[in-house]
Amino acid sequence: EAGVAQSPRYKIIEKRQSVAFWCNPISGHATLYWYQQILGQGPKLLIQFQNNGVVDDSQLPKDRFSAERLKGVDSTLKIQPAKLEDSAVYLCASSFTAGTGELFFGEGSRLTVL
Amino acid sequence: GIQVEQSPPDLILQEGANSTLRCNFSDSVNNLQWFHQNPWGQLINLFYIPSGTKQNGRLSATTVATERYSLLYISSSQTTDSGVYFCAVVSRSGNTGKLIFGQGTTLQVKP
């Protein structure tokens, strides 16, 4: 069974530029999550989708971050304009069900903002 | 919201030693998972264990849901066990299924 796919693995940009990350969840998983992990910390949830609807985006900095999950499968996370403090690993995860389902994570996309 | 505390924050072992990592949480949970983050940053699923005991090779985990803690046991540690171990939970009182992570335990196994 294929796991959660993410791209790109690494991205270096200048501050104020934009960047987009892509995620393809495990087939059949209705719930998709984007987490941000800053060096030395545990991952923090940015946004959670159930199919193509947003369940929780309370910690998403909406002035610069946006995310969508068209057709309830793939998802993209965009940052525009990027700030230095956005340097982090962006992790995508999926689960069959929300709440009690086991989450599986992709390899992550490491962003460096200069 | 639910709080997740892991201890110890750092642990250094000699190869072959055993260790116990602890995760305390402040509310009832629907889901508890243990992950190992490898040096490349990927989170590897170790256990999905909202209650009870599970074993997988040299690793085992126990969650005592009524007392709000979970333990991860690593026996006969190897250098490849090095990395950060995270406990993460979904609060039963939440309605979104958000997985909340602890701050992790950084394990270094020396040859």
Task: Give a topology summary.
The complex is a heterodimer of chains A (114) and B (111).
Chain A: E1 5-7, E2 10-13, E3 19-24, E4 31-37, E5 44-50, E6 53-56, E7 65-68, E8 75-79, E9 88-95, E10 104-105, E11 109-113
Parallel strand pairs in A: 2-11
Antiparallel strand pairs in A: 1-3, 3-8, 4-5, 4-9, 5-6, 7-8, 9-10, 9-11
Chain B: E1 4-7, E2 10-14, E3 19-25, E4 29-37, E5 43-48, E6 52-56, E7 59-64, E8 69-74, E9 83-91, E10 99-101, E11 105-110
Parallel strand pairs in B: 2-11
Antiparallel strand pairs in B: 1-3, 3-8, 4-5, 4-9, 6-7, 7-8, 9-10, 9-11
Distance between the termini of chain A: 37 Å
- How many helices of chain B? The count is 0
User: How many beta-strand segments of chain A?
Assistant: 11
- Number of continuous helical runs of chain A: 0
Shape-level CATH architecture of chain B: Sandwich
Count of extended strands of chain B: 11
SS strand fraction of chain B:
over 45%
Question: Can you summarize the main beta sheet of chain A?
Answer: 7 strands, mixed
SSE arrangement of chain B, N to C = EEEEEEEEEEE
Unreliable segments of 5+ consecutive residues of chain B: none
Q: Largest chain interface and its two residue counts?
A: A-B, 28 and 24 residues
Outline type of chain A: globular
CATH superfamily of the domain at 15-92 in chain A: Immunoglobulins
Q: Give average pLDDT of chain B, whole number.
A: 94
Q: Would you state the CATH class of the domain at 15-92 in chain A?
A: Mainly Beta
Percent helix of chain A: under 10%
